[in-house]
Write a structure and sequence with these properties.
By secondary structure, this protein is of the alpha/beta class. The chain has a five-stranded mixed β-sheet with strand order 6-1-8-7-9, sandwiched between helices. The two termini are 29 Å apart.
Length: 200
Amino acid sequence: MTGELFIDPQRCIGCRACVEACSECSGHGGTSMIHLDDLARTATVQTAPTVCMHCDEPACAAVCPADAISKGPDGVVHTAMTERCIGCSNCVLACPFGVPKYDARLDLMMKCDLCYDRTSVDLKPMCATVCPSGALFYGTRAEVEDRRQAQPRNVFQFGDEVVRTKISYMVPAHHEQIRVTESAEVVRSVAEQCLEEAIV
């Protein structure tokens, strides 16, 4: 796997092509693993895609009592193994990005696995293949840095906890890490506010 996924919420046009493409992936059973969130719905029509961030130390896997979630040597955090998942939803509560979803119909946790069937053979994930605006870009870090003014960041701060991820968000270059807070008292840029709302 030579590429990485980069998310640029500022480029999302809300077309939902990523959601439709994800649901058509052969391993998803018609269910999309990507979420399209409305940001500040009362003030803007801006949307942002939310996918699994594939944390270096995935909280979802750490709290799974059945060892149903695993992280591969390439950094991809795989969705719950059907034969092991007991549907307890611990992973849903533990994820700082709010990504895993419990499917009661299947009694199974489901989340983005970065289209592992494709990315493991150096193909783009379905969402990045169809994104017309480049909000979802799959390639090397050098490629995205060469094409964009924003810079990729994959370090998030939740209170005192710092989370490093395989997936990066594109943010203004002067930010070394992305601080996520619930307090409105902290002065934040528009991009930070949108990002915070996108991952809640």
